[in-house]
Design goal:
Elements (H helix, E strand, L loop, with lengths): L2 E3 L7 E10 L8 E11 L4 E5 L6 H8 L7 E6 L2 E3 L7 E3 L11 H11 L4 H14 L15 H13 L5 E5 L7 H18 L2 E5 L3 H7 L2 E5 L6 E6 L17 H12 L10
Parallel strand pairs: 4-9, 4-10, 7-8, 8-9
Antiparallel strand pairs: 1-6, 2-3, 2-5, 5-6, 10-11
Helix pairs in contact: 2-3, 2-4, 3-4, 6-7
């Protein structure tokens, strides 16, 4: 991780006046994706980002991970400006991206192998992460032998294995069926409660954002700006299978939706 020191680390992540432009096609103007984005991810809090398709949600995740340099502005992780690939942060992409020639255990061990961790410790830490995602007994299976939900669990275990204090998740459950998604949401809530990590979570699902989050950042259409940050004050743990039974859920959902719908040109029913 390449960083520049900042003496006042108040948040796990801070986005400060981020602008992101991409080159246009031949003869066309640059494409403006993000327009002056500023918000924080407080320590040990879960913050979701929602916005219309193509507004730059995944671009924000890439900038936080140091995979993309912003056109203007800066991102701070634990008070230091990210200027290169941030190898101390956890990242769960949209696709599981498992190595098909490696077993489940070897996939989970892989980040520790890259860090030079000795085999015995590597195996013990990988087994601990596998147990946390409830995949014990599948250690010798290959990715083609696992369901989509199981592959996603492996991806999460691979992230947990090096114990990051900050986690980035880019629509991790978007490709799963509704039932598997609820199970994954339920298990993620429990896992992160035990880890005490700070989380930035990108999703297109308002219910998912409200149920998992301490606050929800709502982005506008491209070029995206922050429309609002909605605090979610619901008791934990939350029942992911019956959200409408939770006192305050409907009100929190309506607060988010009333802002978000303006970006989708959705009219109220007569």
């Amino acid at each position: 991780m390449n960083v520049v020191s900042d003496p006042d680390p108040q948040n796990a992540l801070s986005f400060n006046a981020i602008r992101q432009n991409f080159p246009g096609l031949a003869g066309e103007a640059p494409l403006s994706v993000l327009n002056d984005i500023s918000f924080n991810v407080p320590r040990r809090k879960f913050v979701s980002v929602i916005g219309p398709s193509g507004c730059g949600k995944s671009t924000l995740i890439q900038i936080a991970a140091g995979l993309l340099k912003p056109t203007l502005g800066k991102v701070l992780h634990n008070g230091s400006i990210v200027t290169g690939v941030n190898r101390t942060i956890g990242f769960v992409p949209q696709q599981a991206q498992l190595l098909p020639w490696k077993t489940l255990m070897e996939n989970v061990e892989f980040p520790l192998l890259l860090r030079g961790i000795k085999p015995a410790e590597r195996r013990a830490r990988a087994q601990e992460a596998i147990d946390k995602v409830d995949l014990s007994g599948f250690e010798l299976h290959y990715s083609h032998q696992l369901s989509g939900g199981m592959q996603k669990r492996v991806s999460i275990a691979r992230m947990l294995v090096y114990k990051p204090d900050t986690i980035l998740m880019d629509e991790p459950f978007g490709a799963l069926d509704a039932q598997t998604r609820m199970v994954m949401q339920h298990d993620l809530q429990a896992m992160l409660a035990s880890e005490g990590a700070s989380v930035l979570f990108v999703t297109h699902d308002i219910t998912e954002a409200v149920m998992l989050s301490d606050s929800v950042i709502i982005l506008s259409r491209r070029p995206a700006r922050v429309l609002a940050e909605v605090s979610i004050d619901l008791p934990r743990p939350r029942d992911m299978f019956e959200p409408y039974t939770i006192p305050g859920f409907a009100e929190a959902y309506d607060r988010v939706w009333s802002i978000f719908r303006s970006e989708l040109n959705v009219k109220r029913a007569a």
